[in-house]
Write the structure tokens for this entry.
Amino acid sequence: MRATVLGAGLVGFLAGGLVWATASSGDSGVRDVPPEVAANAAIARQRMSLILGAIAVYQNDNGDLPPARLSDLYPTLIADPLVFWHPGDSDPPPTTIDNDVPNAPNSAAISFDVNWAAFSAGGPACDVWQIRDNTSQNNAGLLVGQFTWRLGYHTDPPGVLPEAPPASRIRVARQNLAALRVALAVYSNDNQDYWPLDLVAFHTDYCFAPRTWWHPGDAQPAPSQIDNQQLDALNSAQISFEYLGAGFSENAPDDFVVFRDNNPANNGGLGRLHVQRDWQVVYVPLCPGDITGEQVVDLADFLVLETHLGEFETADPVDGDLNGDGSTDMHDAAVLQVNFGASCAPA
């Protein structure tokens, strides 16, 4: 049975965007895009995300039914008229929202089309588009930006926009764990607070990308589909993260670990990430302050940290990211200082 439209919508909104670079790369459609066009497309992407989020909130308050018209979101759920406007649109920016006529002044449909069939009762197929540019001219005729249930944001044709700098492996893993926790919350809202037993059915019903189950530091290749839930198996819902929530519910203690790395090797053998019932994503090092994996905190660790200091959102534990936030900064220097000289080796 298809999950509620609200459920799929929230997971697509919150998790789908994480696979944007993957969905839009590696295609022969790549072409030169002026920086201003790329910047405007990025702003439009954020605004389409806000509209999808507002639709999901509206459905939550109205028995999963979508609004009758896009303008119903204004001003209660979207207070800024500019959210409905693409900065590359030749039409002037709206100063209020008072109609739904496509391309009309002050219209909720001035820049974007919404596929209301994607929000109908029973839920759509996972690859149905939800919202998109109403014309490629918003982007100088080079592309149409759009969101679909499974892929999140991508472009037609694919591969047109330059990719963002790659995030560190641990940062992507943190985002994926957070997205899985969101999906659990939506599932539990539909199932009397209980979490799923069957992760394959859960994955299918809530329309999120197979890569959401994967830690980029895993030696296993990213899944192309989810067809099992065997621990550390190919195309498995537990390919990278062990699921500990089966049989439990939202009534578990705050610090209950729901998903965790199934192997410290995902993080260079230095620690594990997990997500708790209270939504916190936590990194637990095997030996606080140890970067080299020698189970002692010494000058070698300091030299690695010094080399990578200042790397923002592109660092992993092996680069001196000691607190697992994806950056090597003064917080990590403080961890190393506090633990300098410590040994975690068995006595």
In short: The helical segments are 5-15, 20-23, 35-61, 169-190, 199-205, 299-308, 330-339. The CA atoms of residues 136 and 144 lie 5 Å apart.
